[in-house]
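Worked problem 6 (solution included).
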Amino acid sequence: MDFRFTDEQETFRSDVKKFIETTLTEDFWRSQEASEGERSSPKFSQMAAEAGWLAVAWPEQYGGAGLSYTEQMIYMEEMAEVGAPQEHHRRAVQQVGPSIILFGNEDQKTEYLPQIAKGELSFAMGLSEPDAGSDLAAANTRAVKDGDFYTVNGQKKWTSGAHYSDFLWTVVRTDPNAPKHRGLSMLIIPLDAEGVTVEPILDMQGEHHFNKVHFEDVKVPTKNIVGEENRGWYVNASTMDFERSGIARIASLRRALKQATSAHQNPQSGQSSNVKRTQLAELSVATKVTELLAYRVVSHQAAGLIPNYEVSITKLLASEVDQAIHNLHVGIDGLFGNLSFSKWAESAGQTASKGSLRTSANGYISAIPGTIAQGSSEIQRNVIATRGLGLPRG
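Solution. The predicted structure is:
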């Protein structure tokens, strides 16, 4: 692959930077904090859509900009670098839209894709269940066909963003008698449908990102199935590859490393040392390696390929390096590393999204689920072993 960006791509990056500078102002963040919250902002989604930034690599006929995956990567990288509030549209743009382009019928493409590109539709991912986390093939939310509808009963758990999203991209079991990988289907379920209940789950920091979603005799039109009935496992496998291949996590790594390095250079607790400086250097190298692996995934996509085990390598390394960076940062901060949202922990720096101090303790806690969410590290290692190295299944 060519590690250099073209002049046109560098110009595109400059345009994205200018948009960020003129959009994510102090006034914007003040209004954001007062109203919509830190992560999800329909206002920002629509502003980005009006500028033509959301569906960068989608075909123009579906509302996209018709550019390459490289431009899309540049956009995602710059947005993640400043912590832009993208949760309202992120899953729809990065996971659902590409999956509909790949597996959806023409009616679904025409109905959903232009609205997503305009920032008008938000999706949550209805995957994990109380008894089906990393082993998603064990999902048991039932969808029974009755004429032109499926009747859905069951429960999803750890569903990020369900409390503000419009639709749920949902794995359901349509054939309970088939082997567990082969009896699943992918349904689009409106979150305001009768019989759908969203119950909040607070995370370890008392913040509301996750939810339980209950289905009680929910009627979903059969036209909402994406791909073939009972072939949902394969649809979801591609959806997860789209999620894991994002460059955004790499930009977040760089930001975390920068904050940890700054803390070491300006210690409040006397915890700087040659050992920690060496660890920072090692993590800097690991971050760069992760970045290049993510660029490799994008180069595959730009060549018209669908990466598979390559994205598992990137996801595995990025999540574990992220934990290592935050673990080191807490150690650098010493006793200050026990504080959460404190004015005394200035070494943590300011988050762009809230304009307030977020400590190394917050980052450390936030990094913990990284090796579980979007497929655990154990699952990623299995994918790398079987699909990447061709090793037999144990």
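Discussion: Residues 7-121 form a domain with the Butyryl-Coa Dehydrogenase, subunit A; domain 1 fold (CATH 1.10.540.10).
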